[in-house]
Amino acid sequence: MPIKKTELYSSLWASCDELRGGMDASQYKDYVLVLLFVKYVSDKYAGKPEALIEVPEGGSFQDMVALKGDKEIGDKINKIIGRLAEANGLKGVIDLADFNDPDKLGRGKEMVDRLTNLVAIFQNPGLDFSANRAEGDDILGDAYEYLMRHFATQSGKSKGQFYTPAEVSRIMARVIGIDQAKHQDETIYDPTCGSGSLLIKAADQAPRGVTIYGQEMDNATAALAKMNMILHDNPTAEIWQDNTLSSPYFKNADGSLKTFDYIVANPPFSTKSWSNGFDPEHDLYRRFEFGIPPRRNGDYAFLLHILRSLNSTGKAVVVMPHGVLFRGNAEAQIRRNLVQRGYIKGIIGLPANLFYGTGIPACLIVLDKEHAAARTGIFMIDASRGFEKDGAKNRLRHQDIRKIVDVFNGQVELDRYARMVPLSEIQDNDYNLNLPRYIDTTQPEDIQDIAAHLYGGIPDRDVAELERYWTVFPGVRSALLRPRMPAGAPIRAVAAEVGPAYAAAGAAQDLTPSVPIPDDDPRTAGVLHPSRVGYGGYSDLRIPAAEIKSTILVHSEFVAYTATVHEVFDAWVAHHRPLMMGLEKGARTRELIDALSESLLAAFEPVRLIDRYDIYQHLMSYWTETMQDDVYMIITDGWKANAELIPPQLVIDRYFAEEQRAIEALEAEREAVKQRQDELQEEHGDEEGLLSEVMNDRGNVTKSAVKARLRDAQLDPEAADEYALLTEVLGLMDKDTALGRRIRDAQKRLEARVSAKTKALSQAEVRLLVVDDKWLAALVAQVRMELERISQALTRRITELADRYAEPLPEIETEVDALSAKVAEHLARMGYGV
């Protein structure tokens, strides 16, 4: 059985544990990732004469395996890596780490043991990468990025710059239109490429591939990028190590900067030494014609370099701190020039604390030269509120990524989220691009209604804010609420004086009074009128608050809505179940999840009240946590039953439900016995209780003590109650023991039957268990949860409003007066009357 991705990641991270002690986390990668690289190329290319990577004799991972326990293992590993580097022009790339460094790896036997264990971890049979990609994105490359993310997390503030979170990379890759690239000669460039993960994610979106270029200042990080390109089957990518601003490497024959079709970048934020090594005022490449950035802040230096490196139809997306949107002086002038020339297509505000090395919020600036002349506005998204907590960091969820991409690429305006801002409005704001100026993401304040607090009733204004529910369930509104009439009791109190029409009006609570009550009628003095307190804008509950949810759930409109939602999901299942059932060895998992997720989004688009991105998130979360590992096993080994693919509970539920119910009945019976034992011990277990003599130091009744005391009580005529109690306790203990034995025996028999059945499952049965009982059952449960959320949210809000205005001030005052009178009466009786 192939190793699961999660297990693969765990085993790789375990290799880091072998290195702890002599170095910090930022240095682990220099060793672990090199071994990962050697293992990968050895498995994939060794013995293949036409391979892109030559694995020379004495330069493979198997040569390392032969060194386990060797006293000179460190020096010999260095030589193996050196041979591989020499054969492939990778000197200075994969041979930077010294595996014979006693300060980092220990001395003598400590080094031998550490390196032996490290090699053994990579020798795991599950880490066999000789087969081609399983899903268009090889497993090892994913593991490589998993490790880099952990390295970035543990490396601290100054060491995290070599890794752009994969979630951000995926957004960047999809908002620059690289999926429209028509041929491999089109180019993509990252001037601050770090480990290359951003370049890889972007290039992977090009259906026919693109030519990759990257430059990185840090030598070790540039080496990571080169290895990463090879691990992701991009061995021809050109990665150069040098300072992009002072020494840009990619140039044309005439010395001008080479220009590219697409650019992605996550430059270092607000670097202070950006102008070291060159004179920006006399820049050879004319990058700063729109203004020279501040001497001690290089954000716009990178942005202007990127703009200059785009060809006439080029598109770019750059990670920038929010300060570039609103800072003044030189940056304000640069920003004005960029906006006026139409180079900025869009701005996407991201949540804070996404990036390793900084907690400040960042934004994505999307540049587009092709349509600059015709641009009349900038499309802005404020996605700062869409994320989940992941330890100390924030992380974008699948639904956050997808929503950003869909909204941006479709230029969809959404309230409090996204809008197209006209250039004229930006001009009116003096070219300040700070997102809160254009998109208000604050939630409306929940306003307290003074009149409702004074006189009761739920404000119709608050009820109207639930219009999205009432549009779907108009009848539910009238089942829950009724219009509030003028205070009925006061009207009835003067009914004899104002006539039968008023009495009828007061009694007909569901109708507007047919006879208006005149404000100046002396007979109604002191009566609360609609004209005085605005009762025309208030409602009352028709039912007790405790019945709100049940009323919603049984209402015909909610029942019909639930059926409609399930019909939508069932139609999606009917269309895609054959695709899941038809999975075979060698299938591409990416194509599967793309087909499932795209169609699920489309299916739920017309469904009201349910956010289709929430449904999408459920699918993608389940894919990440469970389904992708299952699919990987299926496309590698076929539909073979094992405990990972088919947990025993699935077999029990389908084939042995009766046996399971019998065990559950025994467990319930045993639980009742235990509960009765606890009741007796609680009732009679104190110091004077009848069970005090049979309890041990821990306060528990013991069977031996009960038996001994029973013998004494049997001979004592005055101990009849104690004897009866002890007899019951002993019987309960015996019954508990017997039931425990029966449960264990039944569970063993069931386990044996489940094991036998699992081994005998046919392929057709395995498919049914996995697709229907595991995958689709999990997704059905998530759809039901969304329906529950709808009823719960409506119930919660109506209940909250009803509770808020349940006791009007006059009622509270009356209650206070009554209580005060009672207190005064009691005090008077005690002789404390005033």
Provide an overview of this structure:
By secondary structure, this protein is of the alpha/beta class. Among the domains are: 1-155, Ferritin (Up-down Bundle), CATH 1.20.1260.30; 453-554, no CATH class; 655-760. Helix content is 52%, strand content 9%. It has 32 helices and 14 strands. The protein has a nine-stranded mixed sheet with strand order 3-2-1-4-5-7-6-8-11, sandwiched between helices. It has a three-stranded antiparallel sheet with strand order 12-14-13. Helix 1 (5-17) crosses helix 7 (139-155) and helix 29 packs antiparallel against helix 30 (720-760). It is globular.
Give the gist of this structure.
The chain is built from 32 helices and 14 strands. It has 834 residues and is an alpha/beta fold. Strand 1, helix 9 and strand 2 form a beta-alpha-beta unit.
Which structural traits does this protein have?
834 residues, alpha/beta, 9% strand, 9-stranded mixed β-sheet, Ferritin, 14 strands, 32 helices
**What's the total count of β strands?**
14
**From the 3D coordinates, which CATH architecture of one domain would you assign?**
Up-down Bundle
Cα separation of the termini: 89 Å
Computed CA radius of gyration, to the nearest angstrom: 36 Å
What is the fourth-level CATH superfamily of one domain?
N6 adenine-specific DNA methyltransferase, N-terminal domain
- The unreliable regions are 132-137, 487-535
